[in-house]
Design goal:
By secondary structure, the protein is α/β, with parallel strands linked by helices. The chain has 3 helices and 9 strands. Helices cover 22% and strands 30% of the residues. It starts with 12 loop residues before the first strand and ends with a strand. The relative contact order is 0.21.
Length: 182
C-alpha cells in the first residue's frame, strides 16, 4: 500500500534515537577494526541511497585506511514493501578481486536484495566479503542471508530517517522513525 506523501507527518514517531544510533555505530566500528586488525586495506561498499548516512558515520568511526565505492540497487519503487524484484541501477567503479570487502546496507528485510548483492560481488573474487547493516527485520526474511555486523534488530515496521526514506522524504532525520499505514 502506498502512502500519500502530502499526509505524512513532519516528525514521525521515533523508534531509535540519534544517541542510540551513534553508540551502536561506534560498537560496530570497533568490531570491524578488531576483525580486520591485520588487514592493511579494507574496501567498503555503500548501498545507495539508504545506507549513505550509516556508511559515512561507520567509515569515519573506523579510524583506519579504507577505500570506498558505491552501488545502487532498487526493490521498493515508492512503496512500503519490497517488490521482491531487485534491479542493479549503478555498479561499482572499481574492481574488488583479491580485496577484503564489506557491503554496508541500511536494512535487511526480505534478504533478497542482500542475497543478490552478495552473489554478484562474490563472483568477482574478493579475498573476503562481509556485510554490515544498520537494521535487520528477521521476521520478514524470504531467504536466509548472512549478515556479519548488525546494528539493531527491529520488528516489522516501516522505518525512515538516518538515510532511509519514503518517496525520498525523511532521509535527513537524525533518528530512525516509524511510519504507520493508516
Amino acid at each position: 500500500m502506498a502512502l500519500d506523501p502530502e499526509s505524512l507527518p513532519d516528525h514521525p514517531t521515533p523508534l531509535l534515537t540519534q544517541e542510540a544510533i551513534t553508540a551502536r555505530v561506534a560498537d560496530l566500528a570497533a568490531q570491524i577494526r578488531a576483525d580486520y586488525a591485520s588487514t592493511r586495506d579494507l574496501h567498503m561498499v555503500c548501498v545507495l541511497k539508504g545506507a549513505f548516512v550509516f556508511f559515512s558515520d561507520l567509515v569515519r568511526a573506523l579510524d583506519r585506511r579504507v577505500t570506498l565505492d558505491f552501488i545502487v540497487v532498487s526493490s521498493y519503487q515508492k512503496a512500503t514493501r519490497s517488490s521482491g524484484e531487485v534491479r542493479l541501477v549503478k555498479d561499482l567503479d572499481t574492481g574488488i578481486e583479491g580485496r577484503d570487502v564489506i557491503i554496508v546496507e541500511d536494512i535487511v528485510d526480505t534478504g533478497l536484495t542482500l542475497t543478490y548483492l552478495q552473489e554478484i560481488l562474490r563472483a568477482r573474487g574478493p579475498r573476503s566479503l562481509k556485510t554490515a547493516c544498520l537494521l535487520s527485520k528477521p521476521s520478514r526474511r524470504k531467504v536466509e542471508v548472512p549478515v556479519d555486523y548488525v546494528g539493531f534488530t527491529i520488528e516489522d515496521r516501516f522505518v525512515i530517517g538516518y538515510g532511509l526514506d519514503y518517496a525520498e522524504i525523511y532521509r535527513n532525520l537524525p533518528y530512525i522513525g516509524v511510519l504507520d499505514e493508516g
